[in-house]
Amino acid sequence: MSSSNGVALPGAQVQEIEVMAKATRRRFTAEYKLKILREAEACTRAGEIGALLRREGLYFSNLRTWRDQLRRVGELGLAPKKRGPAPRPKNPLAAKVVALERELTRLRARAERAEALVELQKKVAELLGTPLRRTGEKPS
Predict the structure, then answer these.
(1) What 8-state DSSP symbol labels residue 133?
(2) In a domain, 4, yes or no
(3) Closest CA to 75 of 46, 40, 34, 16
């Protein structure tokens, strides 16, 4: 065998350790929940509900929760709920805002290019010594 500190002694057999698959959360269908609730309601003698729960691998809290769901919402309340945070509703104006921001960026870049061209024209006219006319002015 092995010593008490877990070290294998010479000549001792080493036990195989079985690795279990990762446990998954059990999910119950609405039909299954209804079936169990009906069976529990049919139990009349002492200990029958406990035997039913042991046979199915359930807890009394499951019965209590399912009864509350059935009482509050009806059979639809027994349907499994989607886990996780509730999805946020999409803002119908979000796509419009994105498109307008994209257009604004494009127009700003275009305006900056136009201003740069005007500045370039001013510098060229200054270097050449030709005065620039404003829009709408008549030539002198």
Answers:
(1) P
(2) no
(3) 34
